[in-house]
């Protein structure tokens, strides 16, 4: 066995998966060692008042972990959504925790503390059981992202396996930098919703290679909709995040380039079934 | 959904608190906090109705051969099997011993 191969194997054996971590472990792992301090932790029991009324068991943190600490010795707030609880859906409480955390980070910046934010997104979007309250919370999160990135970058990371959908995919699009893994999916509507609306002939939600070819992390990166495409390796992900924070604010936020995106979308021919290659070339502006 | 409560005898209050698990499919969240001296109180909120006997026996079997510290335990259960419940309980107690 060559040295290069031995090194590769060694690397694989030592690699720590990020995707396999729960929300709290993810936040802890990406903050500087020992700096993790949770706000409104589960023992505060700030749970959803709406789920029990509908016969659904709550989770003590409502599926959202908000942690303060440092990244690269700089003040940071990390928000991690737990995808395993109710599909990472955002209700009134979880949504308010995120919006509040981002608003406090902006206030920090106005007071001379350069707090930056990292969002670990694992969410199907609004929690249907909380309907308008969840939607309102997501709107507040979006406003808070826009407000905070006047001062500091807001980095979004979609690792999987849930992905990021609904209103939160818009929040993801607003981030200064958006990072994904191969396991990630990013889209406004989830596959089952599209299948229901467009029909199974057009969009088969059980055809996993097809779904990932259109909404998966690799495709989103190739289409220029995200800024980083990362392996499921805790150390590499941490490194990338620190690198993007070091870059500071991007010269132009992706959300300010809407005219550029609209121009391309207008060239889309809806009469032909889209596939991965045609979508990429549409965004890249190349001829097939 | 059903809310159940159980009580067992216990020793001195535990030091510190612990949380393990997640309210995901087939899993549960277990929270341990110091309780009142002599009492181990468990509150279970579960998505599966009619399992009171099963919970009672699971706890009895777990606590029969050990003196437990006084704890307030909160469980949010999303259809975990007794085996998973026991593993999570033991994980939480182990976390507590590291506090």
Explain what this protein looks like in three dimensions:
Chain A has helices at residues 3-14, 23-30, 92-110, 131-148, 167-174, 191-198, 208-215, 217-222, 234-247, 258-266, 276-284, and strands at 37-39, 64-71, 74-81, 116-121, 154-158, 177-181, 228-230. By secondary structure, chain A is of the alpha/beta class. In chain A, α4 (131-148) packs parallel to α5. The mean pLDDT of chain A is 94. Chain A is built from eleven helices and seven strands. Chain A has a single domain (14-255), classed as Alpha-Beta Complex (2-enoyl-CoA Hydratase, Chain A, domain 1), CATH 3.90.226. Chain A has a seven-stranded mixed sheet with strand order 1-2-3-4-5-6-7, sandwiched between helices. With 99 residues, chain B is an alpha+beta fold. Chain B has one domain. Helices cover 29% and strands 34% of the residues of chain B. A five-stranded mixed sheet of chain B has the order 1-4-5-3-2, with helices on one face. The termini of chain B are far apart. The mean pLDDT of chain B is 95. At the A-B interface, loops of A face β3 and β5 of B.
What is the domain total for the residues of chain B? 1
Number of E-type strands of chain A? 7
Q: Largest interface, per-chain counts?
A: A-B, 14 and 18 residues
Helical amount among residues of chain A, as a percent range? 40-55%
Major β-sheet of chain B, in short? Answer: 5 strands, mixed
Spell out the CATH superfamily of chain A: 2-enoyl-CoA Hydratase, Chain A, domain 1
What string gives the helices and strands of chain B in order? EEEEHEH
Q: What structural class is derived from the secondary structure elements of chain A?
A: alpha/beta
Distance between the termini of chain B: 32 Å
In total, the number of strands of chain B is 5
**Oligomeric state of this protein:** heterodimer
Task: Provide the CATH topology of chain A.
Answer: 2-enoyl-CoA Hydratase, Chain A, domain 1
What is the domain tally of chain A? 1
Main β-sheet of chain A: number of strands, strand sense, barrel status?
7 strands, mixed
């Amino acid at each position: 066995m060559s040295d290069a191969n031995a090194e590769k194997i060694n690397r694989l054996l030592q690699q720590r998966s990020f995707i396999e971590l729960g929300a709290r472990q993810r936040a802890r792992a990406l903050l500087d060692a020992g700096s993790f301090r949770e706000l409104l932790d589960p023992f505060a029991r700030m749970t959803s008042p709406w789920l029990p009324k509908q016969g659904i068991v709550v989770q003590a943190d409502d599926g959202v972990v908000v942690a303060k600490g440092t990244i690269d010795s700089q003040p940071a707030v990390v928000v991690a959504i737990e995808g395993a609880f109710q599909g990472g859906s955002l209700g009134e409480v979880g949504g308010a925790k995120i919006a509040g955390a981002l608003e406090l980070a902006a206030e920090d910046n106005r007071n001379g503390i350069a707090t930056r934010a990292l969002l670990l997104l694992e969410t199907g979007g609004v929690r249907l059981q909380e309907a308008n309250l969840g939607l309102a919370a997501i709107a507040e999160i979006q406003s808070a992202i826009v407000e905070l990135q006047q001062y500091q970058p807001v980095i979004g990371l979609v690792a999987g396996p849930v992905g990021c959908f609904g209103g939160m995919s818009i929040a993801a699009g607003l981030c200064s930098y958006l990072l994904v893994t191969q396991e990630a999916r990013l889209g406004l509507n989830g596959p089952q919703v599209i299948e229901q609306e467009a029909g199974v002939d057009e969009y088969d939600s059980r055809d996993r290679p097809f779904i990932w070819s259109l909404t998966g992390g690799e495709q989103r990166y190739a289409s220029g909709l995200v800024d980083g495409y990362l392996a499921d390796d805790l150390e590499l992900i941490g490194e990338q995040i620190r690198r993007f924070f070091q870059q500071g604010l991007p010269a132009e936020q992706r959300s300010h380039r809407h005219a550029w995106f609209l121009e391309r979308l207008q060239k889309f021919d809806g009469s032909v079934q889209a596939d991965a290659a045609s979508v990429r070339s549409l965004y890249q502006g190349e001829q097939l | 959904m059903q809310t159940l409560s159980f009580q067992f005898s216990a020793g001195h209050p535990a030091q510190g608190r612990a949380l393990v698990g997640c309210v995901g499919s087939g899993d549960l969240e277990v929270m341990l906090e110091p309780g009142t001296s002599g009492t181990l109180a468990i509150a279970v909120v579960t998505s599966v109705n009619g399992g009171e006997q099963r919970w009672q026996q699971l706890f009895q079997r777990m606590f029969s051969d050990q003196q437990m510290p006084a704890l307030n335990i909160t469980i949010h259960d999303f259809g975990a099997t007794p085996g998973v419940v026991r593993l999570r309980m033991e994980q939480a107690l182990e976390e507590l011993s590291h506090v």
